[in-house]
């Protein structure tokens, strides 16, 4: 699949805002700690990915009712669903001057029911001509996502026969339906009911 940039302005994929708040001290402090042992941007990006994947539990896996959406809160509270963790990873990458954006999949259960939008991150490392997607939602039995730039190692490959799909757009900011569900939910059960089942386009 060929990924498509939402904007040709690369600075949009380095920007900070209310969601990807990489100027926040928590994000900056985490980025500084991760970069201390990194020899180059590739090492830093891998470290950031593994930090978010492995040290921030997916709230549905952990049974955590707290709902996070802002990158700094995800890092401080150490919880979030795939979308929130994608915000945190995007913020850490941008804090390390690595262009990063948000990508999405439409996934379902094994029978094609209960569709949901799943959040990923795309990044562009120096010296590379193409963006790569990575998935920091967190591993568990049956899920083995890895940091891999040439061959995708996402949590789930899509199954078109079940109505699943990859959205090729790399977004600089979260789409309205995703952010609205995160900001509007008071707990995990409300969030499950509010999450979008597909994205426009």
Structure explained in plain terms:
The two termini are 16 Å apart. It is built from 7 helices and 5 strands, in the order βαααααββββαα. The mean pLDDT is 97. The protein has one domain (4-194): C8orf32 fold (Roll). By secondary structure, it is an alpha+beta fold. The chain is globular, with a radius of gyration of 16 Å. Helix content is 33%, strand content 14%. Strands 1-5-2-3-4 form a 5-stranded mixed beta sheet, with helices on one face. This is Transglutaminase-like superfamily protein. It comes from Actinacidiphila alni. InterPro entries: Papain-like_cys_pep_sf, Transglutaminase-like.
Outline of this structure?
With 201 residues, the protein is of the alpha+beta class. Helices cover 33% and strands 14% of the residues.
The rough form would be described as: globular
Radius of gyration: 16 Å
Secondary structure tally, helices: 7
Class computed from helices, strands and strand pairing: alpha+beta
Strand order of the largest sheet: 1-5-2-3-4
User: Between the first and last Cα atoms, what is the distance in angstroms?
Assistant: 16 Å
CATH architecture: Roll
Low-confidence residue ranges: none
Total number of domains = 1
Query: How is the CATH topology named?
Result: C8orf32 fold
Please count the beta strands (DSSP E, at least 2 residues each).
Answer: 5
CATH hierarchy class name: Alpha Beta
């Amino acid at each position: 699949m060929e990924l498509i940039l939402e904007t040709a302005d690369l600075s949009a994929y380095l920007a900070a805002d209310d969601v990807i708040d990489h100027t926040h001290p928590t994000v900056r402090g985490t980025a500084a700690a991760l970069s201390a042992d990194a020899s180059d941007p590739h090492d830093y990006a891998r470290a950031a990915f593994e930090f978010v994947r492995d040290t921030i539990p997916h709230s549905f896996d952990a049974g955590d009712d707290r709902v996070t959406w802002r990158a700094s809160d995800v890092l401080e509270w150490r919880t979030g669903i795939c979308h929130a963790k994608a915000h945190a990873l995007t913020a850490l990458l941008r804090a390390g001057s690595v262009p990063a954006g948000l990508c999405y999949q439409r996934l379902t259960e094994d029978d094609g029911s209960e569709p949901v939008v799943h959040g990923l991150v795309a990044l562009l490392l120096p010296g590379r001509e193409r963006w790569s997607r990575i998935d920091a939602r967190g591993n568990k039995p049956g899920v083995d996502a890895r940091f891999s730039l040439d061959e995708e190692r996402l949590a789930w490959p899509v199954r078109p026969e079940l109505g699943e799909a990859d959205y090729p757009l790399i977004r600089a900011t979260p789409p309205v339906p995703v952010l609205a569900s995160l900001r509007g939910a008071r707990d995990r059960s409300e969030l499950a009911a509010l999450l979008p089942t597909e994205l426009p386009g």
